[in-house]
Amino acid sequence: MSNLIEARRGQHAVPIESLDAAALPACRKRLTAAQRHWLQASDFNARAGSVLLLPDADGKLARVLVGVDREEPLWALAALAQSLPEGDYALAAEGVLGDTRLAALGFALGGYRYARYRKAPRAPARLLVAPALLAELQPLLDAAAQVRDWVNTPTEDMGPADLAAAAHALGKTHDAKVREWVGDELLANHFPTIHAVGRASHRAPRLIELRWGKRKHPHLVLVGKGVCFDTGGLNLKSGDGMRWMKKDMGGAAHALALAGLVMRAMLPVRLTLLIPAVENAVAGNALRPGEVITTRSGQTVEIDNTDAEGRLILCDALAYAAEQQPDLIIDFATLTGAARVALGPDLPALFGNRRELREAVLAAGEAEHDPLWSLPLWRPYRRMLDSYLADFANSGASRHAGAITAALYLERFVPDTTSWLHVDVYAWNDADRPGRPRGGEAQSLRAFFAFLRQRYA
């Protein structure tokens, strides 16, 4: 549960007033003489990020003043949940932040702490909000916390079977049907690339499928890359490169959480969730560079690099999704370091074969302060994945345009007649920032939920 609670009549809460330098004179006039003296003695100037606790005549906390940047409404109050004394607070009507929804959302996101292995040092401050706002925000906060929890959990407790357990739990909550193809069942049911990537692990690879909704509704397929740990395979990563590879199932975490939001909102869609879940491990039977795999679609792929494994497990899932001729396929994947070099850690890279869909997602991301950035499916770069003995390779010699060539690889498994969006997401915060603690992060989740509500509601 989040630290947002429903405001009730007569319930006491300390007001939080957001202000900047322009609003400070008007604020000063509303204070008592003692509080004005305290403000002056504290040298409070309403600089963004500054906080002043104002006492009443009895020395009790009466008001909180917070300096904010009006251009950053989502994160303006995000530090307060962990920095204010424990207790109940409410947004003051005099605050300069006009969007109460974003301010409350950021405050609540700042209350998150991952506490599976170590108890949180303190409870976060609580924000009282109107019942309607709580009902709107709580699903988003729950979904974000789920993504963060799943990505933060080490692989020993978040392997392929654990991802399946999360899908089964989600299915039980929303009366959805869940099934799996595990180990050699993948070969028997023609998912060869998922099996090839995961066969070297002591934990069997699998494809997880969740189905929900009525057949008469538009068919939406969500696909999430579930590489629960990535050693790189025989193209072994360095120690630094391998250190945080528990997060390589971040795409699966996003797809799971978005599926939960869709079902919780009862959107009128026929939903299919697909998660190819593997560990990319090293053993005597590991996938080797130079092998050629005939994928589910019938296209042959030469393995140039076993560390380009995410696109391999996704291609069978995408081919299976496309066979069902859905209205829309969306896949999420922590796919390339090249996307991070191009856009940094905060901006997921968005690709898609329909301009109007890309523009709708970007607009939803801007409105939700949950941004993405569009990159092109520049088809001349397909030559970078040329193979001399297969239809194409999973990687190539050039380091140029790595995020684009990965997306172009995936595009080969989606027919032109099927609408498709691909998100190359980081799913991680490298350092602590207000509202964004170090570790797993939900990125573009709110944007895609808003987009789906607009498309299907």
What does this structure look like?
Strands 7, 8, 9, 10, 11, 14, 15, 16 and 18 form a nine-stranded mixed beta sheet that branches. Strands 1-6-5-2-4-3 form a six-stranded mixed beta sheet, sandwiched between helices. A three-stranded mixed beta sheet has the order 12-13-17, covered by helices on one side. A hairpin with a 5-residue loop joins strand 12 and strand 13. Helix content is 33%, strand content 20%. It folds into two domains: 4-128, 3-Layer(aba) Sandwich (Leucine Aminopeptidase, subunit E, domain 1); 141-456, Aminopeptidase (3-Layer(aba) Sandwich), CATH 3.40.630.10. The longest helix has 22 residues, at 131-152. The chain is α/β, with parallel strands linked by helices. Helix 5 (131-152) packs antiparallel against helix 10 and helix 8 packs antiparallel against helix 11 (310-323). It contains 15 helices and 20 strands.
CATH superfamily of the largest domain: Zn peptidases
Strand fraction equals: 15-25%
Radius of gyration: 24 Å
Morphology call: elongated
Helix content: 25-40%
What is the CATH third-level topology name of the largest domain?
A: Aminopeptidase
Annotation, overall tally of beta strands: 20
The biggest beta sheet is recorded as: 9 strands, mixed
Low-confidence stretches: none
Which class of secondary structure composition applies to the elements? alpha/beta
What oligomeric state do the depicted chains represent? single chain
N- and C-termini, Cα separation: 26 Å
* CATH class placement of the largest domain: Alpha Beta
What is the CATH architecture assignment of the largest domain?
A: 3-Layer(aba) Sandwich
Number of separate helices: 15
The average pLDDT score comes to 97
The number of domains = 2
Family: Belongs to the peptidase M17 family.
GO molecular function: manganese ion binding; metalloaminopeptidase activity
Keywords: Aminopeptidase, Hydrolase, Manganese, Protease
Domain Cytosol aminopeptidase: 305-312
